[in-house]
Amino acid sequence: MYDVVVVGGNLAGTSSAISASLRGLKVALIEKNKQPFMPAHCGEAIHTDILEYFNLNNLDYTKNPINEVIINVGSKQYDIKLKKPLQMIIDRNFIENEFLKRAEEKGVKLILGNGMKDFNKPNEIILADNTRIKGKIIIDSTGIACQVGKRIGLANILRPQDVGVGIQSRVQGNFKIDAMKLWFHKPYGPMGYAWVFPLNKNLANIGIGIMGGQKIDMKELLDRYIKYELKSDYKILSTFRACVPVAAPLKKIYKDNVMITGDAARLTNSLTAGGIRYALLSGSFSGIVASKYINEEIDNLGLYQMKLEKVIKSLTKVYNKKRKMEIEKNLIKGYSRLFSTFYTLNKIAPNICINYLLKTIKKDWRILDSLS
Ligand SMILES: Cc1cc2nc3c(=O)[nH]c(=O)nc-3n(C[C@H](O)[C@H](O)[C@H](O)COP(=O)(O)OP(=O)(O)OC[C@H]3O[C@@H](n4cnc5c(N)ncnc54)[C@H](O)[C@@H]3O)c2cc1C
Predict the structure, then answer these.
(1) What is the ipTM metric for this complex?
(2) Pairing mode, strands 27-31 and 109-112
(3) For residues 31 and 13, is the Cβ–Cβ distance under 8 A?
(4) How far apart, in Å, do the first and last CA atoms of the chain sit?
(5) Over the stretch 7-53, which tens digit does the pLDDT of each residue have?
(6) CA dist., res. 152 & res. 147, Å (int)
(7) Band of the pLDDT at 335, cuts 50, 70, 90?
(8) Which residues line ligand 1 at a C-beta cut-off of 6 Å?
(9) Best label site of 64, 218, 285, 290, fewest CB within 10 Å?
């Protein structure tokens, strides 16, 4: 019997496993794939504070700071030049593998290429090869599938509009290395947005993410967008499709001996579909709560919900905004207002603006600091 069995071995799952094993727990991590997808199924844009918090700054891999954001929305273009980078485009594969390595070094039993087939309440995981594994605590980090959460009645079926449908190509070409481009709504990101995220001056992730339920040939649209951005001098190296929840977070992210983390708990910003920071935050925090429970400092997992309630509330607020923006004219109005305000504030007081944003995002980690 393990103290903790984590199901799902990407960023939420590995950070859960590392956090629990760092605190002396006996942990198994189950991942259905043998290794993370290459390239990662992600735009790979993350806030700069994440690298600092997870000791990822001094390692040698692609981390490209963004100083300029060029946004198209409605008939307007906003060119926002930041005093300091708020985001970086990183090699997510490196971080995924680094976290798997850290987990293994901490003694986590890695079970890769053998996913969960079923769950026997209260604590038994049945794997694809019929092996059975038990944990005193189960952590569901299975992404949008929310495999355990669904089986214990915590996750309902998502509305099509609450699924962000994405397609992205890794493209070779010439890019302005420190500038990301975002194109909201039509023609390239209908009810969503298109992006160019440079990894270096010759390589970028170019993608489109839109609200589900629309009948659109996404590959054709992406090819058109790439052609628009790069004219003729480019080469598409690879393309993938993937989904992300753009829904309200689950109302309850734990039940009995189970905690739900990351995309499985629908902890994403439903206007941007960004979820990496919440995957890492909830993953790391679930490991802390697990250790407190196993060490009998607490007698239930309610602390997990309680401490993340602020994050849940703020993401629910974003989701409520997104619901209003499901009507086309509200969507354009909403994004236009957001970016014109950002543009103006940044123009008037660039230092105050960026320092405020950097300070605000850093507050998230207080949840971890308060208990670790
Ligand atoms: C196109 C696209 C672009 C994105 N770009 C960004 C971005 O630039 N920045 C950002 O912050 N966010 C981005 N996101 C969102 C971000 O990728 C997710 O929020 C993040 O990956 C969530 O991490 P996770 O570990 O919770 O889930 P996932 O990354 O989905 O990991 C879930 C893991 O569980 C495994 N699994 C599933 N079922 C089972 C099973 N039965 N048994 C065992 N294992 C299982 C899967 O194989 C997977 O490894 C993007 C999403 C998409 C779709």
Answers:
(1) 0.99
(2) parallel
(3) yes
(4) 25
(5) 999 999 999 999 999 999 999 999 999 999 999 999 999 999 999 99
(6) 9
(7) very high
(8) 7-13, 30-33, 41-46, 115-116, 141-143, 145, 147, 166, 168, 207, 209, 242-244, 262-264, 268, 273-276, 279
(9) 218
